[in-house]
Specification:
By secondary structure, the chain is mainly beta. It has two domains: 3-201, Nucleic acid-binding proteins (OB fold (Dihydrolipoamide Acetyltransferase, E2P), Beta Barrel), CATH 2.40.50.140; 220-273, Ribosomal protein L2, domain 3. It contains two helices and 17 strands. It is globular and about 70 Å long.
Length: 273
């Protein structure tokens, strides 16, 4: 998908680049699949900040996405490809033959009018959801479940794709975009193809105001703070700040933070690079 740039009429316009939205075929979402969203500004139910640098931004409505793809062996037609403000990928509206409508993540190359299906009887074509036991080896997949019937948890961002490498009994070896090779139950569903909006990583906000529209507040370096505010703060003049740490003193950039006693460790064959 092409990237739109602007004439440098202002300093921010010089560096701004956005999508041309050529793949979008419908401007208004399906009303029956919309839900209201309340912005929490990074706060939990107690009102404490658990996610820093969140707040403000444009108002949004949530689009209900079908991550389970549990309408098995029921054909559907792609009615439209739409923009979703809550994720980097595009979404596609499916009209099933029984009259139900659902949103799915739009794979790269999906066109309006395409016929899709989920289940073991589906063909291995872009957009179809199938169990890992039925997908041919060496095929790109996304929207992958970790447990059967749980709903997709892995590979859902724009431009992402995993690779089905092999199968051994009840487990399949999947290479994730991070480089990690992981064993997943062969009964888990995955969608054929690569997530759409591949050029998302090349877009540039161009100005701080664009980040504020997204609900992202300014981020201050720990080195620029006082010692009472951050472990890396303080010092006479500019200082290195010591070893990189989080505001709560946990080491960052090099120290392994994964729980060594995690139950899922046994399913990881090769760590990410």
């Amino acid at each position: 998908m092409p990237i739109k740039t602007y004439r440098p009429t202002t300093p921010s316009r010089r560096f701004t680049s956005v999508s041309t939205f050529e793949e979008i075929t419908r401007s208004k979402p399906e009303r029956s699949l919309l839900r209201s969203m309340k912005h929490q500004a990074g706060r939990n139910s107690s009102g404490r900040i658990t996610m820093r640098h969140q707040g403000g931004g444009n108002r949004r409505m949530y689009r209900c996405i079908d991550f389970k793809r549990d309408k098995v062996n029921i054909p559907a037609k792609v009615a439209s490809v739409e923009y979703d403000p809550n994720r980097s990928a595009r979404i596609a509206l499916l009209h099933y033959v029984d009259g139900e409508k659902r949103y799915i993540l739009a794979p790269n190359g999906l066109r309006v009018g395409a016929r899709l299906m989920s289940g073991s009887k589906a063909e291995p074509i872009v957009g179809n959801a199938m169990p890992l036991s039925q997908i041919p080896l060496g095929v790109q997949i996304h929207n992958i479940e970790l447990q059967p019937h749980q709903g997709a948890k892995l590979v859902r961002s724009a431009g992402m794709a995993a690779l089905l490498m092999s199968r051994e009994g009840k487990l399949a070896n999947v290479k994730l975009p991070s480089g990690e090779i992981r064993m997943i139950n062969v009964n888990c569903l995955a969608t054929i193809g690569q997530v759409g909006n591949v050029d998302h990583e090349n877009y540039s906000y161009g100005k701080a105001g664009h980040a504020r529209w997204q609900g992202i507040r300014p981020t201050v370096r720990g080195r620029a703070m006082n010692p009472i505010d951050h472990p890396m703060g303080g010092g006479e003049g500019r200082s290195t700040g010591g070893h990189p740490r989080s505001p709560w003193g946990l080491y960052a950039k090099g120290k392994k933070t994964r729980n060594v006693h995690s139950r899922s460790t046994r399913f990881i064959i090769e760590r990410r690079k």
